[in-house]
Amino acid sequence: MCGTNGANGANGVTGSSIAGPVPRPNPYANTSDFLSNVANFKIIESTLREGEQFANAYFDTETKIKIAKALDAFGVDYIELTSPVASEQSFRDCQAIAKLGLKAKILTHIRCNLDDARAAVEAGAQGLDVVIGTSSFLREHSHGKDMEYITKTAVEVIEYIKSQGLEVRFSSEDSFRSDLVDLLSLYKKVDSVGVNRVGIADTVGCASPRQVYELIRTLRGVVSCDIETHFHNDTGCSIANAYCALEAGATHVDTSVLGIGERNGITPLGGFLARMVVSAPEYVKSKYKLNMIKEIEDMVAEAVQVNTPFNNPITGFCAFTHKAGIHAKAILNNPSTYEILNPEDFGLTRYVHFASRLTGWNAVKTRVGQLGLTMTDDQVKEVTAKIKALADVRPIAIDDADSIIRTYHLSLPGVSQNTSNGTSEPVAVNGA
Ligand SMILES: [Zn+2]
């Protein structure tokens, strides 16, 4: 969070003449102000463009179509594809996806020149994302063009795309290492010729959330068109940067599934929505089919042959696992105590870990119930001690803990051999 604007600073207990207790303001309440688009943003899903730049990525046409359809069903606003001039197959794939008739608009990413723009129009894209490097590094070491040339070409390309009736975004590459005056005057110019969006791209992943906030807020004061943002994750800031960009008035965020892209990638779709569903639950839940996140991530993970990271927001294998006894007790009473995200929103279930030395008797009591057994609290405490004792000696599996519970139960007075007939499924605890 940037904390540079909004309501937080104005909060506080005011006046001493108010009668009765004054509710304490939440110091961590969402920051909001008139610039913020946190509850009104659009996603440009770039798995099929940025994601194709991921080291392991090779998407055949069938896979691209499958991913595009899934992203469309999920509810993303735009799907961005690799430039049709990258290869002949890229051209044909763009044509094929543009013809699917998806609700999401099909964009393709092109360099800032008329030949690329013409090819993209021919390939059937509904919008073009034009990009050119403006930083001194790229001007010197990549394309070698000066700002005057860049501006002239940009206007020419934008006017051509508009004349074809397509949407157009114009973006600099490496925006955060570009000269601010150059950048703002270029964007002011393209805004004046009717560009739909300008783009801020942290191509090298160098920006911090505060820098993002400052740049976007400044740009918001200079252009009237939409602002698209693109954040690489080299220093782990890609979600925070996207969030701050929206707070500062950006309108569009680029994502890719699992964050795949050049180097270690960009803002991941799932992680970004984890952030956004906390900040703008109504908007996010009404617009995106959150229960498809796992399926889409699994689809892409398989296509590029990676595993979902253990600590991935929402879908990491332990994202909704509670282990410590104190946590488990509170979670079983009220999941909000240790969960900011509700697994049910994503079609997932929470798991209360009970087969460890950190377990507590509340978690074990739930497991006893799931196994269809009846014990008094004192008995549960006793069997919990046995589980902890074994778990102190070696790591134990669910089966080990279950067998301790069953054996203990059988030893209780009046219990016969055939009373334990409960489930042996792992303890997934559904709860409100
Ligand atoms: Zn990128």
Could you characterize what this model shows?
With 432 residues, the protein is α/β, with parallel strands linked by helices. It folds into two domains: 42-304, Aldolase class I (TIM Barrel), CATH 3.20.20.70; 321-420, no CATH class. The protein has 15 helices and eleven strands. It has helices at residues 61-74, 88-98, 114-122, 136-141, 147-163, 180-192, 209-220, 238-247, 269-279, 281-287, 293-303, 325-333, 361-370, 377-393, 398-410; strands spanning 42-45, 78-81, 105-111, 127-133, 167-173, 197-202, 226-231, 252-255, 321-322, 350-352, 428-429. The strands form two sheets. Strands 1-2-3-4-5-6-7-8 form an eight-stranded parallel beta barrel, surrounded by six helices. It has a three-stranded mixed beta sheet with strand order 9-10-11. Bound molecules: zinc ion. Zinc ion (ZN) is lined by residues 50, 203, 230, 232, 261-262, 266. Belongs to the alpha-IPM synthase/homocitrate synthase family. Homocitrate synthase LYS20/LYS21 subfamily. This is homocitrate synthase. Keywords: Amino-acid biosynthesis, Lysine biosynthesis, Magnesium, Manganese, Metal-binding, Transferase.
Quick overview of this protein structure:
InterPro entries: 2-IPM_HCS-like, AIPM/Hcit_synth_CS, Aldolase_TIM, DRE_TIM_HCS_fun_bact, Homocitrate_synth, LeuA/HCS_post-cat, PYR_CT. With 432 residues, this protein is α/β, with parallel strands linked by helices.
Count of runs of 4 or more consecutive helical residues:
15
Whole-angstrom Rg: 27 Å
When the domains are counted, the total is 2
CATH class of the largest domain: Alpha Beta
Strand content: 5-15%
Number of strands: 11
Low-confidence stretches: 1-18, 419-432
Approximate shape: elongated
Enzyme class: transferase
Domain Pyruvate carboxyltransferase: 41-294
Pfam family, one: HMGL-like
Cofactor: Mn(2+); Mg(2+)
